[in-house]
Protein backbone atom coordinates (compact mmCIF):
# COMPACT_ATOMS: atom_id res chain seq x y z
CA UNK A 1 0.00 0.00 0.00
CA UNK A 2 1.43 3.43 -0.89
CA UNK A 3 2.17 5.79 2.04
CA UNK A 4 -0.77 7.87 3.18
CA UNK A 5 -0.66 11.57 2.28
CA UNK A 6 -2.65 14.66 3.11
CA UNK A 7 -3.82 14.98 -0.49
CA UNK A 8 -5.11 11.40 -0.66
CA UNK A 9 -6.94 11.44 2.66
CA UNK A 10 -8.63 14.77 2.04
CA UNK A 11 -10.24 13.35 -1.04
CA UNK A 12 -11.46 10.20 0.69
CA UNK A 13 -14.66 9.77 2.65
CA UNK A 14 -15.17 8.83 6.28
CA UNK A 15 -17.78 7.57 8.67
CA UNK A 16 -20.81 9.70 9.38
CA UNK A 17 -20.39 12.06 12.32
CA UNK A 18 -22.49 11.80 15.46
CA UNK A 19 -24.65 14.68 16.61
CA UNK A 20 -23.27 16.15 19.82
CA UNK A 21 -25.25 16.29 23.02
CA UNK A 22 -24.92 19.18 25.44
CA UNK A 23 -22.56 18.70 28.34
CA UNK A 24 -23.03 20.60 31.64
CA UNK A 25 -22.40 24.22 30.79
CA UNK A 26 -20.93 25.30 34.13
CA UNK A 27 -18.17 22.75 34.76
CA UNK A 28 -15.60 24.35 37.07
CA UNK A 29 -12.59 23.15 35.06
CA UNK A 30 -11.63 20.63 32.41
CA UNK A 31 -13.77 19.83 29.37
CA UNK A 32 -17.46 20.50 28.68
CA UNK A 33 -19.55 20.76 25.53
CA UNK A 34 -21.23 23.67 23.75
CA UNK A 35 -23.97 23.56 21.07
CA UNK A 36 -22.77 21.75 17.95
CA UNK A 37 -22.24 23.49 14.62
CA UNK A 38 -25.09 23.32 12.07
CA UNK A 39 -22.84 21.31 9.74
CA UNK A 40 -19.76 19.15 9.93
CA UNK A 41 -16.80 21.26 8.81
CA UNK A 42 -13.00 21.20 8.95
CA UNK A 43 -10.03 23.30 7.80
CA UNK A 44 -11.42 26.32 9.61
CA UNK A 45 -10.02 29.35 11.42
CA UNK A 46 -12.84 30.80 13.54
CA UNK A 47 -12.36 33.94 15.59
CA UNK A 48 -14.26 36.19 18.00
CA UNK A 49 -15.61 39.72 17.80
CA UNK A 50 -17.50 41.52 20.57
CA UNK A 51 -18.03 38.36 22.59
CA UNK A 52 -19.31 36.31 19.65
CA UNK A 53 -17.58 33.52 17.72
CA UNK A 54 -17.61 33.72 13.92
CA UNK A 55 -17.00 30.72 11.66
CA UNK A 56 -17.00 31.02 7.86
CA UNK A 57 -15.91 28.71 5.07
CA UNK A 58 -14.05 25.42 5.37
CA UNK A 59 -14.54 21.92 3.97
CA UNK A 60 -17.95 20.53 4.78
CA UNK A 61 -19.15 16.94 4.90
CA UNK A 62 -22.45 15.26 4.12
CA UNK A 63 -23.32 11.59 4.54
CA UNK A 64 -19.85 11.03 5.95
CA UNK A 65 -17.97 12.37 2.92
CA UNK A 66 -16.27 15.66 2.12
CA UNK A 67 -18.51 17.50 -0.35
CA UNK A 68 -16.25 20.48 -1.03
CA UNK A 69 -15.81 24.00 0.29
CA UNK A 70 -18.61 26.00 1.82
CA UNK A 71 -19.47 29.70 1.86
CA UNK A 72 -21.66 29.43 4.98
CA UNK A 73 -21.09 31.74 7.93
CA UNK A 74 -22.29 31.11 11.48
CA UNK A 75 -22.03 32.94 14.79
CA UNK A 76 -22.58 31.94 18.41
CA UNK A 77 -22.22 33.51 21.85
CA UNK A 78 -22.19 31.79 25.25
CA UNK A 79 -25.70 31.27 26.59
CA UNK A 80 -27.28 30.72 23.18
CA UNK A 81 -28.81 27.33 22.41
CA UNK A 82 -27.74 27.19 18.77
CA UNK A 83 -25.61 28.83 16.12
CA UNK A 84 -27.07 31.59 13.93
CA UNK A 85 -26.50 31.75 10.19
CA UNK A 86 -25.25 35.08 8.83
CA UNK A 87 -24.42 36.44 5.38
CA UNK A 88 -22.33 33.87 3.48
CA UNK A 89 -18.90 34.52 2.05
CA UNK A 90 -19.06 35.88 -1.52
CA UNK A 91 -17.75 32.51 -2.77
CA UNK A 92 -16.97 29.03 -1.49
CA UNK A 93 -13.62 28.91 0.27
CA UNK A 94 -11.69 26.55 2.49
CA UNK A 95 -8.97 27.58 4.94
CA UNK A 96 -10.02 31.27 5.10
CA UNK A 97 -8.30 32.68 8.17
CA UNK A 98 -10.70 34.81 10.26
CA UNK A 99 -9.48 37.67 12.46
CA UNK A 100 -11.58 40.05 14.55
CA UNK A 101 -10.25 43.62 14.45
CA UNK A 102 -11.76 47.13 14.70
CA UNK A 103 -15.39 45.95 14.91
CA UNK A 104 -15.00 43.83 11.77
CA UNK A 105 -14.24 40.23 10.89
CA UNK A 106 -11.51 39.81 8.28
CA UNK A 107 -11.37 36.63 6.17
CA UNK A 108 -7.85 36.36 4.80
CA UNK A 109 -6.58 34.14 1.99
CA UNK A 110 -7.40 30.46 1.78
CA UNK A 111 -8.42 28.41 -1.27
CA UNK A 112 -11.23 29.10 -3.72
CA UNK A 113 -13.01 26.10 -5.17
CA UNK A 114 -15.79 25.15 -7.51
CA UNK A 115 -19.03 23.65 -6.23
CA UNK A 116 -18.78 19.99 -5.22
CA UNK A 117 -15.05 19.81 -5.92
CA UNK A 118 -11.88 20.11 -3.86
CA UNK A 119 -9.68 22.67 -5.60
CA UNK A 120 -6.65 24.33 -4.04
CA UNK A 121 -6.66 27.67 -5.88
CA UNK A 122 -4.91 29.91 -3.38
CA UNK A 123 -6.14 33.49 -3.13
CA UNK A 124 -4.71 36.83 -2.00
CA UNK A 125 -8.20 38.20 -1.40
CA UNK A 126 -9.20 39.90 1.84
CA UNK A 127 -12.90 39.95 2.74
CA UNK A 128 -14.32 42.16 5.49
CA UNK A 129 -17.57 41.46 7.35
CA UNK A 130 -19.62 44.26 8.92
CA UNK A 131 -21.85 42.75 11.65
CA UNK A 132 -24.17 45.77 11.70
CA UNK A 133 -24.94 45.46 7.98
CA UNK A 134 -24.55 41.66 7.86
CA UNK A 135 -22.49 42.16 4.73
CA UNK A 136 -19.12 41.14 3.28
CA UNK A 137 -17.05 43.55 1.18
CA UNK A 138 -13.64 43.27 -0.43
CA UNK A 139 -10.63 44.70 1.37
CA UNK A 140 -7.06 45.23 0.15
CA UNK A 141 -5.59 42.07 -1.37
CA UNK A 142 -2.38 40.77 0.21
CA UNK A 143 0.91 41.01 -1.71
CA UNK A 144 0.82 37.26 -2.47
CA UNK A 145 -1.72 34.45 -2.38
CA UNK A 146 -1.57 32.60 0.93
CA UNK A 147 -3.23 29.71 2.73
CA UNK A 148 -2.81 27.57 5.85
CA UNK A 149 -1.23 30.57 7.52
CA UNK A 150 -1.22 31.98 11.04
CA UNK A 151 -3.21 35.23 11.22
CA UNK A 152 -3.56 37.37 14.35
CA UNK A 153 -4.18 41.00 15.27
CA UNK A 154 -2.15 43.28 17.53
CA UNK A 155 -3.30 46.87 18.04
CA UNK A 156 -5.45 46.81 14.88
CA UNK A 157 -2.57 45.49 12.78
CA UNK A 158 -3.25 42.08 11.23
CA UNK A 159 -0.26 39.76 10.81
CA UNK A 160 -0.22 36.99 8.18
CA UNK A 161 2.62 34.53 8.82
CA UNK A 162 3.99 31.51 6.98
CA UNK A 163 1.68 28.97 5.36
CA UNK A 164 1.75 28.06 1.69
CA UNK A 165 2.37 30.00 -1.48
CA UNK A 166 2.34 29.00 -5.18
CA UNK A 167 5.75 27.70 -6.27
CA UNK A 168 5.24 28.68 -9.90
CA UNK A 169 2.58 29.84 -12.32
CA UNK A 170 0.24 26.93 -11.52
CA UNK A 171 -2.19 27.41 -8.65
CA UNK A 172 -4.84 24.71 -8.80
CA UNK A 173 -3.79 21.68 -6.78
CA UNK A 174 -2.08 20.85 -3.50
CA UNK A 175 1.18 20.01 -5.30
CA UNK A 176 1.37 23.49 -6.87
CA UNK A 177 2.39 25.02 -3.53
CA UNK A 178 5.44 25.29 -1.28
CA UNK A 179 5.99 26.29 2.35
CA UNK A 180 6.73 29.91 3.18
CA UNK A 181 8.24 32.05 5.94
CA UNK A 182 6.78 35.34 4.61
CA UNK A 183 5.22 37.81 7.03
CA UNK A 184 2.76 40.49 5.89
CA UNK A 185 1.01 43.09 8.02
CA UNK A 186 -2.29 44.77 7.11
CA UNK A 187 -2.33 48.22 8.68
CA UNK A 188 -5.51 50.08 7.81
CA UNK A 189 -5.88 49.97 4.06
CA UNK A 190 -2.38 48.92 3.07
CA UNK A 191 0.00 45.99 3.41
CA UNK A 192 3.63 46.04 4.47
CA UNK A 193 6.28 43.38 4.96
CA UNK A 194 7.68 42.43 8.35
CA UNK A 195 10.53 40.18 9.47
CA UNK A 196 10.07 36.68 8.02
CA UNK A 197 9.54 33.77 10.37
CA UNK A 198 12.48 31.54 11.30
CA UNK A 199 10.96 28.37 9.84
CA UNK A 200 9.04 27.76 6.61
CA UNK A 201 5.89 25.77 7.44
CA UNK A 202 2.18 25.38 6.92
CA UNK A 203 -0.72 24.27 9.11
CA UNK A 204 0.81 25.79 12.25
CA UNK A 205 -1.21 27.56 14.93
CA UNK A 206 -0.69 30.85 16.70
CA UNK A 207 -2.00 33.31 19.25
CA UNK A 208 -1.07 36.61 20.87
CA UNK A 209 0.36 36.28 24.38
CA UNK A 210 1.59 39.32 26.30
CA UNK A 211 1.68 41.35 23.06
CA UNK A 212 3.92 38.77 21.39
CA UNK A 213 2.87 36.43 18.58
CA UNK A 214 3.51 32.73 19.28
CA UNK A 215 3.57 30.30 16.34
CA UNK A 216 3.69 26.58 17.16
CA UNK A 217 3.70 23.22 15.44
CA UNK A 218 2.67 22.80 11.83
CA UNK A 219 4.34 20.79 9.10
CA UNK A 220 6.48 20.96 5.98
CA UNK A 221 5.90 19.37 2.61
CA UNK A 222 9.07 17.30 2.75
CA UNK A 223 9.71 17.14 6.48
CA UNK A 224 6.53 16.16 8.29
CA UNK A 225 5.26 17.65 11.54
CA UNK A 226 7.28 20.19 13.49
CA UNK A 227 7.79 20.97 17.17
CA UNK A 228 9.08 24.49 16.38
CA UNK A 229 7.87 27.35 18.59
CA UNK A 230 8.70 30.90 17.50
CA UNK A 231 7.87 34.20 19.19
CA UNK A 232 7.57 37.53 17.37
CA UNK A 233 8.11 40.86 19.14
CA UNK A 234 6.18 43.44 17.09
CA UNK A 235 7.92 46.36 18.78
CA UNK A 236 11.34 45.16 17.63
CA UNK A 237 10.18 43.36 14.45
CA UNK A 238 12.20 40.38 15.62
CA UNK A 239 11.68 36.63 16.01
CA UNK A 240 13.20 34.29 18.61
CA UNK A 241 12.90 30.62 19.41
CA UNK A 242 11.08 29.39 22.51
CA UNK A 243 10.69 25.94 24.05
CA UNK A 244 9.52 23.53 21.33
CA UNK A 245 6.29 21.59 21.64
CA UNK A 246 6.64 18.19 23.33
CA UNK A 247 5.71 16.58 20.01
CA UNK A 248 5.19 17.82 16.46
CA UNK A 249 1.49 18.39 15.68
CA UNK A 250 0.37 19.72 12.29
CA UNK A 251 -3.18 20.93 11.62
CA UNK A 252 -3.61 21.90 15.27
CA UNK A 253 -5.33 24.88 16.91
CA UNK A 254 -4.08 27.32 19.55
CA UNK A 255 -5.45 30.05 21.82
CA UNK A 256 -4.22 32.22 24.68
CA UNK A 257 -5.88 32.45 28.08
CA UNK A 258 -4.74 33.64 31.51
CA UNK A 259 -1.18 34.39 30.44
CA UNK A 260 -0.63 30.95 28.89
CA UNK A 261 -0.73 29.47 25.41
CA UNK A 262 -2.85 26.37 24.77
CA UNK A 263 -2.50 23.98 21.80
CA UNK A 264 -4.97 21.30 20.73
CA UNK A 265 -4.97 18.28 18.41
CA UNK A 266 -3.62 17.92 14.90
CA UNK A 267 -2.82 14.97 12.65
CA UNK A 268 0.04 12.80 11.43
CA UNK A 269 0.47 10.76 8.25
CA UNK A 270 3.13 8.17 9.05
CA UNK A 271 2.28 4.59 10.07
CA UNK A 272 -1.17 4.86 8.50
CA UNK A 273 -1.96 8.30 9.86
CA UNK A 274 -4.04 9.47 12.81
CA UNK A 275 -5.29 12.33 14.95
CA UNK A 276 -3.69 13.58 18.16
CA UNK A 277 -5.77 13.63 21.36
CA UNK A 278 -3.05 15.58 23.19
CA UNK A 279 -3.47 19.15 24.39
CA UNK A 280 -0.78 21.33 25.94
CA UNK A 281 -0.27 24.51 27.96
CA UNK A 282 2.79 26.74 27.60
CA UNK A 283 3.88 29.12 30.37
CA UNK A 284 6.12 31.95 29.10
CA UNK A 285 7.37 32.64 32.65
CA UNK A 286 9.07 29.25 32.81
CA UNK A 287 9.39 28.61 29.06
CA UNK A 288 7.87 25.16 29.60
CA UNK A 289 5.06 23.04 28.17
CA UNK A 290 2.74 20.98 30.35
CA UNK A 291 0.26 18.31 29.28
CA UNK A 292 -3.38 19.08 30.07
CA UNK A 293 -6.36 16.73 29.85
CA UNK A 294 -6.66 15.06 26.46
CA UNK A 295 -9.35 16.30 24.10
CA UNK A 296 -12.60 14.33 24.56
CA UNK A 297 -12.94 14.32 20.76
CA UNK A 298 -9.49 14.31 19.13
CA UNK A 299 -9.51 16.35 15.94
CA UNK A 300 -7.41 18.17 13.36
CA UNK A 301 -8.29 21.06 11.03
CA UNK A 302 -10.17 22.58 13.97
CA UNK A 303 -10.34 26.05 15.50
CA UNK A 304 -9.78 27.38 19.02
CA UNK A 305 -11.29 30.66 20.25
CA UNK A 306 -11.00 32.31 23.67
CA UNK A 307 -14.06 33.95 25.20
CA UNK A 308 -14.04 34.97 28.84
CA UNK A 309 -12.40 32.27 30.95
CA UNK A 310 -12.89 29.48 28.41
CA UNK A 311 -11.45 28.22 25.14
CA UNK A 312 -13.93 26.90 22.57
CA UNK A 313 -12.48 24.09 20.43
CA UNK A 314 -14.54 23.95 17.24
CA UNK A 315 -15.17 21.55 14.36
CA UNK A 316 -12.39 19.67 12.59
CA UNK A 317 -12.12 16.00 11.66
CA UNK A 318 -11.92 13.00 13.98
CA UNK A 319 -9.97 10.97 11.43
CA UNK A 320 -6.93 11.81 9.37
CA UNK A 321 -7.57 14.04 6.33
CA UNK A 322 -11.23 14.23 5.37
CA UNK A 323 -12.41 11.32 7.50
CA UNK A 324 -15.13 11.81 10.10
CA UNK A 325 -15.50 15.56 9.72
CA UNK A 326 -17.24 16.81 12.86
CA UNK A 327 -19.67 19.46 14.09
CA UNK A 328 -18.61 19.12 17.72
CA UNK A 329 -17.78 22.18 19.87
CA UNK A 330 -16.00 21.51 23.15
CA UNK A 331 -15.06 23.92 25.93
CA UNK A 332 -11.81 23.87 27.86
CA UNK A 333 -11.57 25.65 31.21
CA UNK A 334 -8.16 25.65 32.94
Beta-strand content estimate: 35-45%
Q: Determine the structural class based on helices, strands and strand pairing.
A: mainly beta
Q: Order of strands in the sheet with the most strands?
A: 1-36-35-34
Shape: globular
Sheet with the most strands, sense and barrel status: 4 strands, antiparallel
SSE layout and pairings?
Layout: H1 6-10, E1 30-34, E2 40-42, E3 47-49, E4 52-56, E5 59-62, E6 65-69, E7 73-76, E8 84-86, E9 93-94, E10 97-101, E11 104-108, E12 111-112, E13 121-122, E14 126-130, E15 135-138, E16 150-154, E17 157-161, E18 164-166, E19 177-179, E20 183-187, E21 190-193, E22 205-209, E23 212-216, E24 219-220, E25 224-225, E26 229-233, E27 238-241, E28 253-257, E29 260-264, E30 267-268, E31 274-275, E32 279-283, E33 288-292, E34 303-307, E35 310-314, E36 329-333
Antiparallel strand pairs: 1-36, 2-5, 3-4, 4-7, 5-6, 7-8, 9-12, 10-11, 11-14, 12-13, 14-15, 16-17, 17-20, 18-19, 20-21, 22-23, 23-26, 24-25, 26-27, 28-29, 29-32, 30-31, 32-33, 34-35, 35-36
In summary, what is this structure?
With 334 residues, the chain is an all-beta fold.
Structure description:
The protein contains one helix and 36 strands. It has one helix at 6-10, and strands at residues 30-34, 40-42, 47-49, 52-56, 59-62, 65-69, 73-76, 84-86, 93-94, 97-101, 104-108, 111-112, 121-122, 126-130, 135-138, 150-154, 157-161, 164-166, 177-179, 183-187, 190-193, 205-209, 212-216, 219-220, 224-225, 229-233, 238-241, 253-257, 260-264, 267-268, 274-275, 279-283, 288-292, 303-307, 310-314, 329-333. The protein has a four-stranded antiparallel sheet with strand order 1-36-35-34, with no helix packed on it. A four-stranded antiparallel sheet has the order 3-4-7-8, with no helix packed on it. β5 and β6 (65-69) form a beta hairpin. It is globular and about 45 Å long. Mean pLDDT is 91; it is low at 1-27.
Amino acid sequence: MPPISRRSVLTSGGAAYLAASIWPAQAASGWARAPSLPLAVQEIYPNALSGRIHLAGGLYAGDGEIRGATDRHFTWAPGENSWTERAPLPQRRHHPNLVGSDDRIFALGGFDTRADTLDWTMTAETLIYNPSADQWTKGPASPEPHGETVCVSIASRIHVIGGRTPKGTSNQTWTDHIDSDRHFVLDGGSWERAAPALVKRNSAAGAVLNDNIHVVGGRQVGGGNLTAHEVYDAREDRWRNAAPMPQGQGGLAAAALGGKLYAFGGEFFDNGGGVYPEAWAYDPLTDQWTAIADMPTPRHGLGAVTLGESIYVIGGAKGVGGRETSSVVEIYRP
